[in-house]
Amino acid sequence: MSIAIDRIEPVAAELMRRAAIDIPDDVRAGIARMAQTEAEPLSRFVLEALLENWQAAEQDRRAMCADTGLPRWYVKLGNEARIEGGCVALERALRRATASATETIPLRPNRVHPLTRQDSNSNVGILAPEIDYSVEPAADWVDLIAVHKGGLFGTDWRMLFPGDGIDGIKRFFLDCLLQFGRRGLACQPAILGVGIGGSKDTCMTIGKQAACLRVVGSRHPDPAVAGLEDELLALANASGIGPMGFVGSSMAIDCHIEIAHTHTGGMPVSVHAFCLSSRRAVARLYDDGRVEYRTDPDWFTPYHRREGEE
Fold first, then answer.
1. What is the C-alpha separation between 310 and 306, in angstroms, rounded?
2. 189 and 78 in one domain?
3. Spatial distance between the Cα atoms of 227 and 206, rounded to a whole number of angstroms
4. Together in a domain, 210 and 174
């Protein structure tokens, strides 16, 4: 049996709607905790207003933020799953669902031609929306993950060197956050994703995935990486920059790090802010027609993080 292609598009359209409107429970709980501990009155007011705004968006079924970012897709393919029409049919369905959601939710049509600036008013174009893939062994399902990620600021990258060490990573991380906060380049509090290692493009990719595809409170299985996640989170919230750039102690909801083995002579690092409208939604499709919705992407499985020969 195969997953019917006519099931893909309506599920994808629903994911776009949920991502735009419904804040995941882990993010909401993280903001609620920060509101209880934030000592600065203005910053606490911002956090409380944010929670009220999310509630109003859910009640009215409207996008939680006027800037709905750049919609993109992450697809986890079960190795034993079959899709009617294959991946070409899948991608066509995801593009149609993105265009439909842009009109009906509505999403802001942020995608334009980079030179002519022509807007298709659909968030669909050349390499848009992005569709990233991962594979899971022995699985007979397909996970569709919709993410609405800001596409302008709140991201930086630097090539460090082995001699820079952990202190170099911390210094670059703090440099990024101070620039984000002072210049209004990210809407905090944010989930901060950090990519360490890999090639230049891999470093950027895993940093963005760390920000968008892990739940608040999760920790990397490598104890050294998990310890650095805690250190960077504490550093961010001790920076003196709070919600939306006001003075406070609530800059980061959480900090997630993903790593990749890298060149012996370098240590690329990227930092990404998944803004306070942390928009993601997930559905698992089976070949018997079942669909299971959730908010935990479960992207970083043991197989995804595998190392060594198999």
1. 9
2. no
3. 18
4. yes
Tokens standing for residue 70: 């750049």
Task: Give the model confidence (pLDDT) of 147-198 as tens digits.
Answer: 999 877 788 999 999 999 999 999 999 999 988 876 667 788 999 999 999 9
* Residue pair 85/4 in contact by the 8 Å Cβ criterion: no
Nearest to 175 by CA among 269, 282, 295: 269
112 and 231 belong to one structural domain:
no
**Cα(52)–Cα(237) distance, integer angstroms:** 23
What predicted TM-score, i.e. pTM, was given to this entire model? 0.95
On the 0-12 / 13-18 / 19+ scale of CB atoms within 10 A, 168 is middle
236 — alpha (psi -120 to 50), left (phi > 0) or beta?
A: alpha
3-state secondary structure of 292: strand
Residue 82 lies in a domain: yes
